[in-house]
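Mods, move this if it's the wrong board.
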Amino acid sequence: LHFGFLFQSNLRWRRLDDVAESLRYWLRNISLPNLMKEQLHYGIGEVFREIQRWGEKHSSLFDDEKPEFLKTSKLLKPNRREHLRLFYDCIIWKNLEFEIDDYETANNIILSKCNDWPQMQFQFACAYAILDMLKNVEMFDSIRLKAFSRKLSNHCLYDFWITILRDSAEWEKMFASDAIVPKQKLSLAFQFAITNGYFELLYFIWKRVTETQKEYIGILQWRQVCFLAKHRDVMKFLCNNLCKINVSSLAGTTWNIFYSSLHQSIENSVNERKKIDNIRKMKFLLENCCPLLRSALLSMENFKAITDAFAHNQSEIFALFLEYLNPEQLSTAREYIDRIYDRNGTQERHEFRQWLIRRQNTID
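Not the wrong board. Structure tokens:
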């Protein structure tokens, strides 16, 4: 059973929350073994979150609009973000993963849904930096770009692209500055790509700006990337590149968010939903940061993350941290764990300590 197909076949023009509720109702009443129901429940939840992420990401392509009534009736005019619901059946999933292939999905939308909708083609092409399409004068000639400018230039993404596409000299000027801060239009597009998860646009700009500009904008937006914990490709790319430039600054910012999530998950142990969200954020950060930053996070402040998980009997979090500690870190972490255990050893902490020892023996 493909969870993505199950969701998409029920979506169409319905709202996500309505579909999720109807699938939960179906799951409660279907005759299946409990284990299979649990697996289905987990899969439906992961697909729901991924489609929600995709929708939130692409809502950023549209300016905020005030509610407006249609001229000929008392009905509210649909927000342009609602157009995204037209494209649910175009979503392409990565093989064997609860993850949408955003780039392939964008191409699919452009080719299959927008043949007679040039403005939407342009918007997706801008977001994913599809140069072959953007530079195609048969698709987007000067007249069409002028029309787009009237409608879309208030949005930093389209203002950036329209500026450099309408005049080749502007293309050269846009990337010519060697100042610490890039030109305003470039800077805003750069920040838009990072905070909204448009990896292809980020990569397009990254190749054309100076090392100083990469560091300035990248580190400026890093906290938001960690806080949102949604955009895998952007985080992996930025982490791999920024850690080579300024790992100490990156580690400090990431640690504040990482430890805050740990602290909140311990405090919200009664509120299961909040605890799950915080654990998911910590897992996201550990999975997607580079080995250098991951090692720094787990060893920060004398292995405070894992010792706090041990001291507060947080079994799921403790097990998560064990997965990512390297052999040398396991050995050092055990010393701190043993000190806590010697002062106040309980049966539960004895089990946690045994997990650590088994993990050591497994990877040594």
